[in-house]
Amino acid sequence: MSETTEKKATYNPKEVEDKYYALCEERGYFEIEGNKNIQEEGKDGKIKTFSIMMPPPNVTGSLHIGHALTFTLQDIITRYKRMDGFKTLWQPGTDHAGIATQNIVEKQLIAEGTTKEALGREKFLERAWLQKKTSGGNIVHQMRKLGVTPAWKRERFTMDEGLKEAVKEAFVSLFNEGQITQNTYMVNWCTHDGALSDIEVEHEEVNGKFYTMIYKFADGSGELEVATTRPETYFGDTAIMVHPDDTRYADIVGKEVLLPLTDRTIKVITDTHVDMEFGTGVVKVTPAHDQNDYAVGKRHDLEFIKVFDEKGILNDYCGEFAGLERLEARPVIVKALENAGYIVKIEEHVHQVGHCYRCKNIVEPFISTQWFLSEKIAENSIKETKKHNNFHPAHWINSYTAWMDELRPWCISRQLWWGHRIPVFTCDDCGHTWADKADEPDGCPKCASKKLTQDPDVLDTWFSSALWAMSPLGWGNNGKLPELYNDSDMEDFYPNSLLITGFDIMFFWVARMMMMGEHFNKGQLPFKDFYMHALVRDETGAKMSKSKGNVIDPLDMVEEHSADIIRFTLAYLAVQGRDIKLGAKNLDQFRNFTNKLYNATNYLQLNHSTFKDLNEIEVKTPLGLYMQSRLGLAVEKIRTAIESYKFDESAKTLYNFVWNEFCDWGIEYSKADRESIVELGAIFKETLKMVSPFMPFISDHLYHKLSGTTLEEGESLMVMNFPKAIQRDEEAEKLFAIIEESITALRRAKVVIDMGNSKIDKAYIKLDAPIDTEMAKPFIQKLAKVIEIEFVDEKVADSITDVSDNLEVYLPTGEIDMTPIITKLTRQKEKLEKEIQKLNGMLNNERFVANAPEAVIAENKQALEDAENKMAKVSTELDGFVS
RNA sequence: GACCGCAUAACUCAGUUGGUAGAGUGUUUCUAUGACAUGGAAAAAGUCAGCAGUUCGAGUCUGCUUGUGGUCACCA
To answer: Is the pLDDT assigned to residue A1 strictly greater than 60?
Structure first.
């Protein structure tokens, strides 16, 4: 560190962030009534409300960059609405994450040399709860580091006492409506995690092999070549099929073939499912282990032979191979077939194979008995969704509805222990099956027997998540945990105002909340708006992954920079519909921005120790009026941007206002008018209120610094009003536009004579239209570094000129080289010629004049006039040199 | 294969009812002056992927092409 940087005071976020956060949380600012004193009524006379549900992260998980993005955006909008007088609920919670959590606990047990089976269900669940308790607080504490402000006092867990009730409420009701049924069906089966829904299977391209094997006719009349990628399943073949129109095989239809290495025979059948062009045109049919063959089996009433069990262990149908695991068995079986001469060839074959999204195991199509939720439940929600497209970005509705239109029954049962136990009971005596909200029903409703058996499975984790738009509002909670919600919550906060989430869980989560929300709330969809945020990638645009080692840990970033900087960076980069490339450079830009804010505060305080709020003073100075007007424009733009979820635009506008307007011009001007500084201080404090949702810590810190107060003894910006509309001052804006143009022109002219940064004695300005020159003079002199400005009506002799839109400036010259000036003027002339040509072309086009709106024509006429005037001046200037 | 994106200055990207292209970084030149060198000033830099169409007018709308990414569905 150099000497100079050591001397300079800079903002130290570490001294501020944790302390301020704890203070604000303690004071209950994050809760529904945290902003009670500024809550406002809406048009209907009721308090305005805003609600947003946090997508509950896995209780055992830890914070990653995607979380940082989604939570930051949610926090910005929540803070904005809170400051804007809304009664605001940002509902936090964590998800029990069935498979993920169960796998963690199972791994622990294995490490301890035991298994869940040895432990038993009850003890296992105790362990899982212990795991939840010990690691569950982790992620919510990490979230606090980001400075996010959900209503922590209402934090829920998807398996807490109240939400358990909600799940049972939903299940029992759907069961009784006949929407939930138990069926034996071919499902996606992970030999580790059990049944999976369709979207829990990830299809990935793998380099496999294509085995062509021989099936001999039972009558000894020859053989058939059949190709397969999964030779180990042939023990489950119950037919061979060919296309009915395939003349090559017409004579063998109905014949019997012998399965290799067994004594079982199967028939050759025909089915149009066969693609004659592919492979040999002969297909083995394994109805119990292939989706398509399952359908063929149903059509042809074939036998369904399972060749392995739930764990993938081959059974007696596989003869000598029984006891082997399905994947391990493949090479063994192929070897045996090869030895016996049944393999014709083995080719390389690239194909798609389904993998479990949790454990990456190869998923098998497998027949089993599961609970399904009918796709019909979604019908109304689909219709409603199509009526209004409230997706941001809008194109997501296409993917959404395309998927919804193809919806199939949702397999909701999981062969796990950790989760919501399926509330279905069967009477051991009379066999009656029913769904019950009671954990231990009194008895069978048919025969009153006390001997009951509950379904051993649990529900898909997404079943409880599907209720998330309403269950934390008390829906179906059956009076449990009443301290976590209010009776008016459903009325106040359903439908939720907004859902912010990643598109990767659109089908897992959004779709399910839509169907459940609509179903249980008289057709009312659960969200008014949807915001699908982007994916955060590394600097080069690559997806972050542990294996690539390019993961950016948001907590490291907070440690290295600050929560404020991370938040502002993410917001600034959050363009709708484009992924975010996050690199160190981005963070630097906004670190500099915090420094700018800090130094602007320093400057103000060099002149006055404290400042009042804008509404406590009357702005009178021309500069104050100008800056206030510019603030008004910024307020308007920032509000519009946030309300249309354009986080990037709102952040950018804020950044530009602070830096390019307030600091570069406002502060610089104020050096020529000390009177205005009290006003600028108030305007800056107002600006900090707009910074607050994005960078809550530094804004609060600087606000109190400028006010001469402390957060400890005062209120936070987060519960003060976000700036409201401010009347623009056209007069002041016009005036300062001319002042700014004069300064820029003078600076440009000074560069030409190599006086770029030096103070000069004298300069002249000729204005096209009059302004209050006495008022303008000090500003121009100060910022252009000219000791004396004189306003003139004619060109000044022996001077160089800069021609701009509304004025000309002249710098007196001695004996200097005029070449660079001539070059500059010539270039300017060429540009103007082009522009005039273009505008003339346009205005001479009869059709343009006939069709274009008047305003556009007038605008272009004016532009032409201006360009021609400027052209005349530039030409005159040039002629002066030539003569 | 179907659907949905993206292609704008050297780089990363804005550009919301069609009306003479913007920012940050980088580059060039000047600059240690009492907010800030994590700063200030000035400047250079774009046939908006290509082709065609609609229009008085297209980065913006339509179609096609090329490149690139994603989602879904797939042949045993």
So the answer is: no
